[in-house]
Amino acid sequence: MNAKNFSIAALVCGILGIVGSFIPVVCYFTLILAILGIVFGVKGRKMAEPNQKGLATAGLVLGIVGTAFGALGVICALCLVGMAGSLAAAGMAA
Questions:
Q1: Closest CA to 13 of 37, 45, 42
Q2: Which residues constitute the domain of residue 37?
Q3: From CA 56, how far away is CA 48, in angstroms rounded?
Q4: Could you tell me the sign of the dihedral formed by the alpha carbons of 20, 25, 28, 29, in that order?
């Protein structure tokens, strides 16, 4: 594979990571895509010519943003599950 392929893969994974992070169940899977966007972006930047790093940089940035949004979604889901369990335990005790 050449640098252009890695850059395109980074861009696609980063975009899917951001878009999927707003969908409740899908955010678990797109978090992995966003992380792959970071990996492909770094690999694409290392392999690219000095004047052809723009696409890889865009994929890298989108991967970072997608990872942040996805991680935030997973943390919110875990807090929701913990709160629901706590309320269920309090309801059974009453």
A1: 37
A2: 3-93
A3: 8
A4: negative
pTM exceeding the 0.90 threshold for the entire prediction: no
User: How many domains are contained in the chain?
Assistant: 1
Three-state secondary structure string covering the chain? CCHHHHHHHHHHHHHHHHHHCCCCCCHHHHHHHHHHHHHHHHHHHHHCCCCCCHHHHHHHHHHHHHHHHHHHHHHHHHHHHHHHHHHHHHHHHC
Q: Burial code of 65-89, b = ≥16 C-beta within 10 A, e = fewer? A: bbbebbeebeeeeeeeeeeeeeeee
- Output the six-digit token pair for 31: 């978090």
Q: How far apart are CA 6 and CA 80, in angstroms?
A: 37
pLDDT digits (tens, 9 = 90+) for 18-74: 999 888 888 888 999 999 999 999 999 999 998 989 999 999 999 999 999 999 988
